[in-house]
Amino acid sequence: MTDLPVACTLNQGDLQTRRAELLPGLVKRAERREETSSGWRYTFAPSADLLRDVATVIDAERQCCRFLRFQLTVEPGGGPCVLDVTGPPGTREFLSQLVEP
To answer: Please, is 47 exposed, middle or buried when counting C-beta atoms within 10 Å of its C-beta (0-12, 13-18, 19+)?
Structure first.
């Protein structure tokens, strides 16, 4: 993989318009947020539409924030779903600014 810049290709107006459809909207549903060495970990209670919503957000984000890496873990027995969003140096700070209102 080539080095991709830690940047979103959406302009500020588009980002504000689509905020609920992208990572900031999804993160609001997280029960827990934890910093990791290269990004953030978001933990969600399982729900009927969560996996569909996570997949939709990942698909949208990978188009405008191409540097992001997504890893989704679905725990057995109706346990939580954990989404790790990571990337190159600067990703954690980028995400912190992105998901804050």
So the answer is: exposed
Predicted TM-score (pTM) of the model is: 0.90
For the ranges 9-13, 32-36, 79-83, the lowest mean pLDDT is seen at: 9-13
| C-alpha to C-alpha distances, 6 to 3, 53, 58, 77, 78, nearest whole angstrom | 9, 24, 16, 36, 35
Which band of pLDDT confidence, cut at 50, 70 and 90, is reported for residue 101? low
